[in-house]
Structure formats: C-alpha cells, structure tokens
Specification:
2 strands, two-stranded antiparallel ribbon, elongated, 2 domains, Non-ribosomal Peptide Synthetase Peptidyl Carrier Protein, Chain A, mainly alpha, single chain
C-alpha cells in the first residue's frame, strides 16, 4: 500500500500534471470571461447590425434549429477570441536560442570532412588520432 501511495504522489506532483491542473483552472476562468464578451458585448453588436441576435425561435418541425445556430455562432466567436489570444501570446514568447553549430572535423592529411567519431578517414584511409 505504501508503494502505491508513493507512486501516486510522484505522479500527482509531476510538473506536467500540476501545469495541466493550472491550465484547466485558468481555462475555466478565461472561458467565463470569453462567454461574457460574447454574450454581453459581441452578440448585442451583431444584433444591432443584423437584427435579432437570438435564433432560438427558429424551429424545423419539432427540432429546435435555432439553439443549434446560437451554439455554433457562440463557438465560432469563442474560437476566434481564443485564436487571437494564443496568437498574441506566441508573439510575446521569446524564440528558443539556436544550438551552437559544431565545426566539422577535417582530416589532417587530405582535409576532407569526416565524422567526429571516425578513427580512419573514409577518403584517404589515413589513421586518425
């Protein structure tokens, strides 16, 4: 039982699990902000430009198509907002530094490029140090 608790503790305290938990919590909070932007700001603007922003009254027989249309429009607006936020965050992120490029190893006899672990030159067959 003690080994199982220790394994669970190692799993739960791994960096990626904690990072994921923080991401889920921040995502939930951010989701409520984006939903508020969509419902309280963008939907009324769309309604002022194109007419009624609520499509819930549209039905096709017993099927309420309007709620589906509302959900699709909300999804597209939320996806666009998230895309803009991620794009802005990616611009703020510093690019990863490039790894230093190693100088090629040259054969001291024929000056051809050789593998760094070679013990004999494949071009002139000289024995290397």
């Amino acid at each position: 039982m003690g080994k199982m608790i220790q394994e669970f503790k190692e799993f739960a305290l791994k960096g990626n699990v904690v990072d994921m938990a923080v991401g889920v919590i921040i995502g939930g909070a951010f989701g409520s902000i984006v939903s508020s932007v969509v419902e309280d700001i963008l939907t009324p603007i769309i309604g002022a430009i194109f007419g009624q922003p609520d499509f819930s009254g549209i039905t096709l027989g017993p099927v309420n198509i309007g709620n589906f249309i509302n959900a699709v429009i909300n999804f597209l607006i939320i996806a666009l907002c998230l895309f803009a936020v991620v794009k802005a965050m990616n611009k703020m992120k510093k690019p990863a530094p490039e790894a230093p490029k190693e100088e090629p190893r040259l054969c001291p006899f024929c000056k051809s490029e050789i593998d760094k672990e070679a013990t004999r030159c494949p071009h002139c067959t000289s024995q290397l140090d």
